[in-house]
Each structure stands twice: as structure tokens, then as C-alpha cells.
Design goal:
By secondary structure, the chain is of the alpha+beta class. The protein has 10 helices and 12 strands. It has a domain at 69-263. It has an 8-stranded mixed β-sheet, with helices on both faces.
Length: 286
């Protein structure tokens, strides 16, 4: 028996014992990334439910059958894909991420990291699933506790205590205040921190400012504030429909490393940022 609360296309969803209940209408009408991944032209409660059902059926998400090793890279410049390649290259030695059924997790294997994050979206609260927790630990992951607590600051402390020195941490845009605390903690312990902001749709300008001050990489999702604030400070942008902004040289290194490992053709050229043609953006930006 477990319950999980998450957001997808800015709809609030409850998954309880494998049953999906969409609690609110999606605020995003159309997302280019979700269209490419899942073939969804217009978002609805039904489309959100359909995607989650596919995650449960194909990956065992939110269940004891959870897939915990994955090589597939479904998103060209997704956070897990960027970190998977960075870990494979030795740029990072661990990543503090969030997994349903386990909460905050310190992962050190690229394939496990990718399995956790490839289709993870906006997890707000989760409850323990023993099989997921044990499976992650068998694959070298560290958990905060058995209550599936989500706390990225404590996750970084756990990674530091385990001896990791090049640590990537994902932080939700709605928890932007964590980013400053994570930076202070990294400075205190003299570790190399790579800070990645995800799930930014709907955040305020003030939250976007905090992220732009502290983070190395920021995913724009359907956020108007991120495009306006982080986009103007970026030294590199990857993608135009869902831009990823590198704010620092460390962030730039991670994105360029992903480009190095990307199997398809790419165009890289000089441009003023943000480069976000209106017709290619999610609708609406909020």
C-alpha cells in the first residue's frame, strides 16, 4: 500500500496502489517534448492518465516491479541523460536525485541513475515501496531513510559523508530556496557541486532569480520566468522548445559532454540568448 503525489503537465496526480487519479486539469495545453515522446497533441486529464499508465506498465513505476537499470536515453538533453553521460565520463561521481518509493537517493551507477530519472516528473510526495528501496541499495544507492523522505540537502550530506567529492544534485524549481543551502554546504565541505534545477513550470520571478544565482543548469520546462531571467544570463543553451540553460562554466561542460555523447546530428552556432521561437514553445508559458 503506497501513495504518491506528483505533477505532470502541471496537473496534480495521485497514484495509489497502482491506480492513477488525476486530481486537477493540466495547466499546460501543449508541450513539444511530450508530443515527441508520447504523441500528445493536446493535454487533458486523459492524456496525463495515459502516460502514467504507460510508465507503470512498461517501467513498473510506482510499483514493486520498478525497472532500476536503463540504457535508453529518451530525451535528447534531459537531466538524467546529461548526468548519465557525466557520470560515465567521470565528471561526477554521484548524483542526488528523487525516486518514487524511495525518496531522495544517492546514485553512483549511470544506468541506475537513468532508470530513476528518465521518466520521472514532478514528484512531490512519496511513500515507501520496499522492493524499490532494496533494489536501489543492491545497486549501490544510498537512501536517507526507510520513510521515503525527499530532502536534497540531507541527500548532499549523505553523499559527502560517503566520501563522494564531485556530486550532482537536482532541485525542484518550487524548492528554489534549497539551492542556496546546497551551495553553502558544498563550500563548507570543499566539494565540487553540480546543481541542476528541474520541474520549473509555474515558478515565480523571485524563484527564478534564486535558481539563476545558485545553479549550473536550469531546465526551462514551461516557465516564462526561467526563459526571461535564466535565459538572459546563460552562457549556453541546448534546445529551443524546452531550452536548457547553462549558467556557469561547469554547467556548460556538462551540456557539451552530453553533446559529445549524443548520437544524432547537432547544430551549434553563436546566438543571443534566450533563443526561444514563440511557435516552438509549450503553451501556455506560466
Amino acid at each position: 500500500m503506497s501513495e504518491h503525489i506528483l505533477e505532470m503537465a502541471k496537473a496534480r496526480i495521485k497514484v495509489k496502489d497502482g491506480k492513477v487519479e488525476v486530481l486537477t486539469d493540466p495547466e499546460i495545453i501543449c508541450c513539444p517534448l511530450r508530443r515527441d515522446l508520447y504523441g500528445i497533441e493536446k493535454e487533458s486529464r486523459e492524456s496525463v492518465q495515459q502516460v502514467l499508465h504507460s510508465h507503470i506498465k512498461e517501467l513498473g513505476m510506482y510499483s514493486h516491479d520498478r525497472v532500476l537499470e536503463l540504457q535508453e536515453k529518451p530525451v535528447s538533453f534531459g537531466a538524467s541523460e546529461v548526468l548519465m553521460d557525466a557520470m560515465s565520463e567521470g565528471l561526477v561521481d554521484s548524483a542526488v536525485v528523487v525516486c518514487e518509493g524511495a525518496g531522495t537517493v544517492v546514485a553512483k551507477r549511470p544506468d541506475v541513475l537513468q532508470a530513476i530519472g528518465a521518466h520521472m516528473t514532478g514528484l512531490l510526495r512519496t511513500e515507501p515501496i520496499v522492493e524499490i528501496q532494496e533494489g536501489l541499495e543492491e545497486r549501490g544507492c544510498l537512501l536517507l531513510d526507510r520513510q521515503a523522505t525527499i530532502d536534497q540537502v540531507q541527500g548532499l550530506k549523505t553523499a559527502v559523508s560517503a566520501g563522494f567529492r564531485r556530486i550532482a544534485v537536482t532541485v525542484a524549481g518550487t524548492n528554489s530556496q534549497e539551492s542556496a543551502a546546497l551551495r553553502k554546504l558544498a563550500e563548507k565541505h570543499s566539494i565540487r557541486l553540480f546543481l541542476l534545477a528541474v520541474h520549473t513550470t509555474g515558478i515565480s520571478e523571485a524563484q527564478a532569480e534564486i535558481l539563476a544565482e545558485a545553479c549550473d543548469l536550469i531546465w526551462s520546462c514551461a516557465s516564462k520566468a526561467v526563459r526571461q531571467i535564466a535565459g538572459r544570463r546563460a552562457c549556453l543553451q541546448m534546445g529551443v522548445s524546452i531550452p536548457v540553460f547553462a549558467i556557469t562554466a561547469e554547467g556548460k561542460r556538462l551540456l557539451l559532454n552530453r553533446a559529445l555523447h549524443f548520437s544524432g546530428p547537432l547544430a551549434i552556432y553563436r546566438a543571443g540568448l534566450p533563443l526561444a521561437p514563440e511557435e516552438k514553445q509549450p503553451k501556455p508559458l506560466i
